[in-house]
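Table S2 (continued). Query chain:
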Amino acid sequence: MWKVKRMNTARIVVLTIAIGAGGIAAFLASGSDRSSAPAQPVAQLQTVDILVAKSDIGLGQSVKPEDMQWQSWPATTASSNFISRASKADAVKEFTGSIARSPFIAGEPIREQKLVKADGSGFMAAILPSGFRAVSTEISAETGAGGFILPNDRVDVILSKRERNGDQAGPDMAQAEIILTNIRVLAIDQAPKEKDGTNSIVGKTVTLELKPEQAETLARARQTGTLSLALRSIADGKVVDKPEQISKRGESLNVIRYGVAAQQSIQK
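Corresponding output:
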């Protein structure tokens, strides 16, 4: 009998403790709800509408209305070079028909510096910087770095020519000289940009971006020998060669002898 009473007492104690713990938990929960501070409103990010390229725009491509769109842009990162709806609401209409002097990728902000109005002229005349001329010359796989020279690459132009030796018994003289350095390639044949899916273009004509005096140099050189293009590293694209550097490279290419007499001297 005493065992039954002891068991009932234990159950009552456990039940009392459980009820008390539940009540305390409910009280604390209701108290925390009353004491919690209201959530602070999230600050709204200030944006502006910027004109961007809706799709890729290639070099020399005429821009159409469907190539551009307005897009929200964080106001704190919007450059003054970007075109905003607030400053030019009719920008899409204004720049329709312009020619891209540099390519755009989808989502890139449109900048006026990279567009030019053709006014009826061809795209090559439109993408030429002021004061420069587009001059073409013949090339082959051998004289054009095996076809690995592409538009927008930088090259050196080498003139090779063969001269008769004044001594009838001596061999002819072959000379090579760098006549133009760090020249931008505008097009290979009639391709102003790299062809899709290829990393080389084997063409017969290259169009170079030259100053008027450089164009004269190239025209004279075409009449006196063979022209070759030397592809420059992309790291040297903005390096301006000093006259002594050009002279030193020219000397290393200059005066190469051909003929039986030269071969005999080497064998000796």
